[in-house]
């Protein structure tokens, strides 16, 4: 049975060459596509940001 396609939104960026090379090497070593690697990295970054926001809000709310 074919995999169900997820809803997606294409977008384009310009990336520093050194960062791109690191991404490319990571994807080759891990077997992940660039799309999956970038989606996971962005999700982790935003989750971390949201967590820090909650901590700060808790300290301000005291």
Explain the overall architecture:
The chain is mostly helical and 62 residues long. The protein has one domain (17-60). The protein has two helices and no strands. The mean pLDDT is 93.
Keywords summarizing the entry:
single chain, 62 residues, mainly alpha
Order of helices and strands: HH
Number of domains: 1
How would you describe the shape?
Answer: extended
* Proportion of residues in extended strands: under 5%
Structural class assignment: mainly alpha
Give the C-alpha Rg: 17 Å
Q: Compute the separation of the termini in Å.
A: 54 Å
Largest sheet: none
Topology, number of strands: 0
**Which consecutive residue ranges, at least 5 long each, have pLDDT under 50?**
none
Mean pLDDT reading:
93
How does the SSE layout of this entry go?
Blueprint: H1 17-30, H2 34-60
Task: Give the gist of this structure.
The chain contains two helices and no strands. It has 62 residues and is mainly α. The longest helix is centred in the last third of the chain and has 27 residues, at 34-60.
């Amino acid at each position: 049975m074919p995999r169900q396609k997820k809803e997606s939104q294409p977008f384009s960026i310009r990336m520093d060459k050194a960062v791109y090379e690191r991404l490319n090497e990571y994807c080759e070593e891990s077997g992940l596509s660039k799309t999956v690697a970038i989606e996971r990295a962005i999700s982790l970054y935003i989750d971390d940001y949201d967590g820090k926001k909650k901590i700060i809000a808790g300290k301000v709310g005291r």
